[in-house]
Known about the structure:
alpha+beta
Amino acid sequence: MWSKRKSVDYGLQRRRTLTELQGALRTMVSHDALDADPLLIRAALHHGTLTERRCPVADCGRLLTLNYTFGDQLGQYSGRIKSEAELTEMENEFGEFTVYVVEVCTECGWNHVVESYVLGDGTARKPPRRIATVEDIYG
Length: 139
């Protein structure tokens, strides 16, 4: 992606969480990193991209990644999951939006933000006109 900037790698936080998690597993204390929301797991199953990395907690399977997009210029479409191909199209269509890449293990519930970055061509635009949704119509 040609417009990728302000990239943040969360590798150190991930390593610290895994270290804390090893201690929590020894003492059988629950940990937030293994408490993936059911909607996050469902989204990973249906929209996630399979990676070559194995689950770092229990080696129970390969991880899936999700790309969440956020930004004022996205309007009501902020907070949606997008594929790599969609992100490539969006970087020419919007001025600036942030992408958060989340890794998820659907078997044990491990989830963590892997990286974040900003995409877009840098031109300020107004958000798209709000389109009525089913929730707006039927309450």
